[in-house]
Amino acid sequence: MLSSLDYDEVMGEYRAKVSVDCPSVTHAIADSVASILGKDACDIPPLAETVDPDALNQLFRDSPLGPQGRRLTFTYEAFEVTVSSNGTLRLRR
């Protein structure tokens, strides 16, 4: 689902790149957070308790504004999560 998940010590954040075979951005977010926490995605609270998953997936599906067109930031499981339409996730504590 993720093509990478790395920690940037200078920026103090995790960065993930969503792979093309990922079913949705919400899956990528849950998988990233779970991986960082060392848990299974089923063992963390549902993303739906924080943000509407259908709206989030729709917002980042085939963005007509190009690779830098859309960005959304919200808090989930003590992480500031930023999703960009170029397929990049940034997670900061």
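The record above closes out task 2.4. Task 2.5 opens with a second protein, given below.
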Amino acid sequence: MEDKQTIKQGLQRISKWAEAHYKGDAKLIPGMSKTEIERIVKNFPFKVPEEIIQFHETGYTAMFLSPYPNHFIALEDSTYGCFSCGHLENTYLNDDDEHSIAEWCEINIAYGSGKELYQARCYRHQTSFSPVWIRQLGMEPYLYASSLTNSILANAECYESGAYYPALIKDDDGDFYVVEVDWEKAAPICKKYNPNQIDVWRDLHREM
């Protein structure tokens, strides 16, 4: 399912849908140049997965991870420090050598509208893809998607199929647009791209 080119295609499909159908906050964040990205990651002690690099090269709208606006975290901010590290042995680390024996590091991708934090995992060696993890206050982190690419492709297909659809909400503060979910349509798509996380997607759609 995964291919390094498909993340760009998926992001472009979501942007195209948003431009045609959504009148809410779907601001397009422009992509970064290779030079900018190389400057940011060159001194980072871990290797940023190739799909994360391509994600930042391509540009994206606010709804790439879910049908709800996400708060983006710039690549420079996400690689400035690590949220958590996995260590090769249970050894106490001083601040000065925080990453000296770390095998991997989690970097932040975005905050969701439900205050969940989406993260990718970076290793010492180069990887093409990274699972996407979610952290929520008071909960253990859990797996959201097998890769950022599969998450984006699932969302792109949900938009195009009508599983995610725009709805106008009217209230005393004025009219605004949201994206609603038809779970009967969305479920087989989510299962197609992330079969092992289908319950996670179902629960998140119910909560938001």
